[in-house]
Amino acid sequence: MKTRPFRTLALASIGAFALACSPVRPGGSPASPVPARTGAWEDLYEDVRLDGLEDRRFDQERFWRVVRPVVEGSNRFSVEVVGQSSEGRPLRVISFGRGPTSVLLWSQMHGDESTATMALADIYSLVEEESGNRMVRSILGGLTVHTIPMLNPDGAQRFQRRNAQGIDINRDARALATPEARVLKSVRDRVEPLVGFNLHDQGVGTRVGLTDRGAAISLLSPPFDHSRAVNDVRLRAMEIMGVMIRTIEPMVGNHITRYSDTFNPRAFGDLITQWGTSTILVESGGWEGDPQKQYLRKVNFVGLMAALESIASGSYQGVGTDAYQALPANGRRIGDLLITGGTVVIPDIPSYRADLLVNYEKPLLEEEGTFADIGDLAEVEARDTLVLDGLYIHPRDRALERTEDGIQLKVGAQAYFTVSRRVDGRDPLWVFRGTPPEELRRRR
Q1: pLDDT tens digits, residue range 176-219?
Q2: Which domain holds residue 158?
Q3: Looking at the whole model, is its pTM more than 0.70?
Q4: CATH code where residue 365 lies
Q5: Angstrom distance (rounded) from CA 98 to CA 444
């Protein structure tokens, strides 16, 4: 599988602009998608994929506009409002199937993690459009599938991790201080699912084990206590994940990892496992050339449908744990953009040579960059490197903190500066507002 190297942008002079975009990113981000055959679920996907969620940043109102025509008024679905968010937005359970085995999927308990939410919309479309398909009939006849597609609509409104109270819902399983956590707990207790799917996104800088490969999908059977023992509940989850791994591996190759199984007594995945539901954590990372996670949306769809089919048929039984246990662990998480070689110029302070690490609030879109570190960062890894040898960095007002004691460039400040060939700032080359300028990207 072809893997794209780390990018380095070199700007030692105006002439260096033409060389700025030479790729030297050895194995950095996940590889570009490779055509693969993963069976009937992928064959069906393009026919059932719902339009209207091409931008991964959407609020509950937009999501409901997309899925409502599919699920409301259809005899294949039931839609129930089971509570309200902190700000009064409805929390809905969308269910389908009439089988004896209950399954629960919940997504976007972190408001800025929407990949699986998009995949659930596509699953609803599949159920409505392809109910006569043999595999879909098997699922509808064997399972009753309950989904909470957007557990944190207040966070989704702001596209932020936490809810309107400032609480991480996924760390509220014990205290149940948030209305969203109480809803999830009550739904789980009422439907008593055999299997639960805890659907998330993780940082795009996460590596596969000790390699430079990016993690596209991470999986976990959460432990039920600090012993991390494997009982029947966890064994079931591991075997189902074996089916998922076999199904999605042709799509993402060796970019699948195993999430850390350190027990957290506040986390929903761990406690739901403790309460007797075989829980599967799915974390969608990054994929090169997929800033809106539309390819990983498809990977989620394929993996989840394969899992549901195996639960309905019981075919996961006897798969064993080897495929899951053989996954490399989630590795280190690297930064987004390392800026090297430049000289920083701040009023009333002697100019100094320093490396700058920029991380993005929206790393896939390379937007809203802030300084994560300043100084000698020679050993720091990043997905991109911008080389400014012989050039001067003049931080702009939003990048500087002014106090009665003076002025400073501060970690956490907005990455906003002018790059110049002169220490006095004359003859500026371009302004950095959080991402390298587009004219450089065209020269890669």
Answers
A1: 999 999 999 999 999 999 999 999 999 898 999 999 899 999 99
A2: 40-332
A3: yes
A4: 2.30.40.10
A5: 53
